[in-house]
Amino acid sequence: MSCQDLGGWVKFPAKKYEVMPDAERQCRTQIEIEISHDEVVTYEDRGNSPLRVLSFDIECMYDTENKSVPSIHPIIQISNMVVRMGESEPFLRAIFTLNSCDLIEDVYVCSYSSESKLLEAWQDFIHDVDPDVLTGFNILNFDLWFIIERAQKLATLNVELSRSKGSLAKHVNYNFYSDRYGSREGRNVQIPGRVVLDLFRHLPRNHSTFKLQNYGLKDVAKCLLGDGPDSQKMDLSYQSITELQEGPEANGATRRKMAVYCLQDARLPLKLLHKYGIVEGYLQKGKEKQVPFANLLGPSHALQELGVPNARASQAVISDF
């Protein structure tokens, strides 16, 4: 792409490409094409593609100190909300639960008898929905990290969330910079072919825009989304989660209460993305700088400057995954 000075929309001339048969595909994209790079040509700008954005949140069991440790505590629910960029309402809502959960209006409730089956079904769900962007709140430091570590502990599932077959999701430690906190250590999770946009990372990084005193989800929702009941984080204590899941009176109805809480935590990041045009803003900045979307979310500002012109000048290669 960079060699041909391409960016944005491109065109594949007829009879110059081959659609790969399922048996030969290397990726989980809906269409996989093989074409020589010098046959690809630029095409008129058609605006932003309607990217699919999936927001998710997990709930885990806790110990008496309100801590979750992946080597000990199971994942008991994963909520999911999926939107097309630019639309305000999710077109798909789904919750994956460990053990029974009563029905929730307009939500696919998928219950499983074991945590391994739950995680495997959720991974299949990611492959089927094929989101361009994974989002949520603190998903890099906690949710994705916990899923990867938990899967390794169970030893029954390799976490393959990417579009590249055989590419395992992995987490690494980085120093991240933000306007609010300066440089601080955090986790990064690499999922080839998908962009991970963590709002817990985005908001303090852009403190000069949001100017919040606290960047917890409850405070963020209250300050940035208003007072509407559907725009606020619900209150549910760590002790309540344990009781609702496996207490003496736990059943499908109690787990439904937890599921509604979990779903709201997946809904709020989408409301923030839509209200502030966050994804659209990154796409516009990427076009201006000729930088891949994912680079703009990297741990340092240096990645934001490694655009096509600079890469070409320094004879560097920018990875597409």
Helix content: 25-40%
Tally of alpha and pi helices: 9
Can you write the helix and strand succession as a string? EEEEEEEEHEHEEEHHHHHHH
Principal-axes shape call: globular
Give the helix/strand class. alpha/beta
Report the end-to-end length measured between terminal Cα atoms: 13 Å
Low-pLDDT residue spans: none
Strand order within the widest beta sheet: 8-7-6-5-9-12
| Largest sheet geometry | 6 strands, mixed
- What percent strand? 15-25%
- What radius of gyration results from the CA coordinates? 21 Å
Mean pLDDT: 88
Count of beta strands: 12
Can you describe this structure?
This protein is an alpha/beta fold. Helices cover 32% and strands 21% of the residues. It has 9 helices and 12 strands. The strands form 4 sheets. The protein has a 6-stranded mixed β-sheet, with helices on both faces. A two-stranded antiparallel sheet has the order 1-4. Helix 5 crosses helix 7. It is globular, with a radius of gyration of 21 Å. The protein starts with 9 loop residues before the first strand and ends in an 8-residue tail after the last helix. The model has no long low-confidence stretch (mean pLDDT 88).
